[in-house]
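Just curious: can you write whichever protein you like plus the matching structure tokens?

***
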Amino acid sequence: MVKPTVRDQRKLEIRNQIQKAARAQFIEYGFEKTTMRGLAEAAGVGLGTISLHFKDKNTLLLSVFYDEINAVSIEAVESVPSDSPLKEQFLSMAGSLYRYYGMQTNFLRTVVKEALFSTGEWNEKFNAQLGEVLVRVVALIEAAKERGEVRRGVDSMSLGSVCWSLYLTGLIQGLGAEEFDPEVQTTALEPLLKVVFDGVLERRSYE
């Protein structure tokens, strides 16, 4: 492994410094009212320095969100109780994520809107990030198969994708409300997951 140079470390420190200042500015003033000049002043760098690291304000916004939500998502999956039924594990994960969005709704409304319709490099990054989370969700499903909770013939990635889609629908609905209530969204998600995990066919039709 190549050891980073002093210059590389300094570049990373400045990038993190800009991201930290940007997040604070976006939360305090909102995305639209945050100016690059004000952001540069808050970060203690010049406008040209920001341009070296980030193409524009949208790129900076997505960068801040990407690093943060990646850590939050992985923590949400890995912190689920290992001895709980699969549905309860998914509700635990979704609840953790909904609480994160509930704590900073105004900022994250803009972020999610930009992320959902991102293209090019950022679209690829968010898809890769989702894939990383789904790998962990699939591991939960595979563990549920091992303990006899889920039929072995079920495609784990398809089941994980369906559950994640239901979570995402609840997230968008919550962000669209006047006030994001994590408990309301988690409660609304439960009967939808029940349909998925219980199945809609009579048992004899698929045995």
The longest helix spans residues 120-146. The radius of gyration is 20 Å. The chain has a mean pLDDT of 89. The CA atoms of residues 113 and 151 lie 37 Å apart.
